[in-house]
Write a structure and sequence with these properties.
This protein is α/β, with parallel strands linked by helices. It is 33% helix and 22% strand. The protein contains twelve helices and twelve strands. The strands form two sheets. An eight-stranded mixed beta sheet has the order 6-7-8-3-9-10-12-11, with helices on both faces. A four-stranded antiparallel beta sheet has the order 2-1-4-5, with helices on one face. It is globular and about 70 Å long. The relative contact order is 0.14. Bound molecules: iron/sulfur cluster (SF4). The site of iron/sulfur cluster has 12 residues, from loops.
Length: 340
């Protein structure tokens, strides 16, 4: 791989879920790149394809999923062509890791934190270095991981069971296990949604610091745009399986180009809007097996025109590095779009 190549390059990824005779297009020609050390925030309402995107990259999709076309190039290789054995041995948990909303489900309640951490460290090490290492070596590594995620008195904490850790501490353990020195891509799916706001802020700072320290790239899926504004270098807005807008955090937040992004941003509580009623986007995300023709957002969009009901707007560059899929873009030029 050349030095300047992106770490991850997803092109035209198209995926269906099949339930009996029902076919749901969960991802539709999704294309983007993720640079080394970059944090990309992925936002949108529930059912827009954010989690499916993360699961496609780490290849942990449910059986009903079928990738119809596209590529997921990681370090120059198409993950879709890599065998399950190689994914397990060399990629998943080694180079690409994922943390979920509920760390409780990822930790085994009957084993100590030490056992769970050292087992993973042993498995990671086994693939890189065949030398036999002592239990002491792995214990020291586990202590170092816990310390790096801000857990106080890590050597004493190793003998605890998961039930003795709070939700925030369990999430720190998961991050400590995920961000090994070899992890180049971290997929975080609503990783802090179940935590209270103070712990959420601490965990997000931790992800950002560790990503900077290890040069790890992060795909951070969240419905919370406020969190993404703090954390992400770029933002991708998804709706009904498609990318609606993609750009730097500054571009998307200061000059949203797509009506859906503008509406999402105007639904965010802010100090300036205190005392005013927040915008609620009319209607709901359409079911994936019954998407409206043309632009899938048109039944909810106050700017919709006739063309929007007939044709699908392509994702096009509005300014350098800022992309949007809306027929309004060419008419509006660089004027800031406001929903209200
Ligand atoms: Fe609204 Fe039309 Fe733009 Fe879709 S293409 S977001 S319906 S204006």
């Amino acid at each position: 791989m050349k030095k300047e190549d992106p770490l991850l390059e997803v092109s035209k990824l198209t995926l269906d879920y099949r339930l009996g005779k029902r076919k749901m297009r969960a991802l539709d020609r999704v294309s983007f790149q993720l640079e080394k050390g970059e944090i990309m925030g992925v936002a949108g309402e529930s059912g827009c394809g954010k989690s499916t995107l993360g699961l496609s990259i780490i290849k942990l999709l449910p059986k009903i999923a079928e990738i119809k076309r596209g590529e997921i190039l990681f370090e120059g290789r198409d993950l879709l062509k890599i065998s399950e054995t190689e994914m397990n041995k060399k990629i998943r948990g080694q180079k690409i890791s994922m943390i979920f909303q509920n760390p409780q489900n990822a930790l085994n309640p009957v084993f100590t934190i030490e056992k769970q951490m050292t087992d993973i460290l042993r498995a990671q090490r086994k693939h890189k270095d065949k030398r036999v290492r002592s239990s002491r070596f792995y214990r020291d590594q586990a202590i170092e991981r816990l310390r790096s995620t801000g857990i106080a008195d890590p050597s004493a904490r190793l003998s605890n069971y998961p039930y003795e850790f709070s939700g925030g501490m369990k999430q720190r353990v998961m991050i400590g296990m995920a961000l090994s020195s070899g992890t180049s891509l971290l997929l975080a799916d609503e990783a802090t949604t179940a935590l209270d706001v103070t712990i959420e802020a601490q965990i997000n700072r931790l992800i950002s610091d560790l990503a900077a320290e290890y040069g790890t790239s992060v795909l951070y899926v969240s419905h919370n745009l406020g969190v993404l504004a703090e954390l992400a270098d770029r933002i991708m807005i998804m709706y009904a399986g498609r990318i609606f807008e993609l750009g730097t955090t500054e571009d998307v937040f200061d000059s949203p180009s797509h009506p859906y992004s503008a509406a999402l941003l105007e639904s965010l509580p802010s100090r300036q809007a205190r005392g005013k009623r927040l915008l609620s986007i009319p209607g709901i995300v359409p079911p994936l097996d019954n998407l409206p023709c043309g632009c899938s957002f048109h039944p909810r969009c106050k700017f919709a025109e006739n063309i929007c009901k007939r044709e699908v707007p392509p994702l096009e560059q509005v300014t350098d590095g800022h992309w949007s899929a809306c027929f309004l873009d060419s008419k509006r030029g660089r004027k800031r779009l406001k929903w209200i």
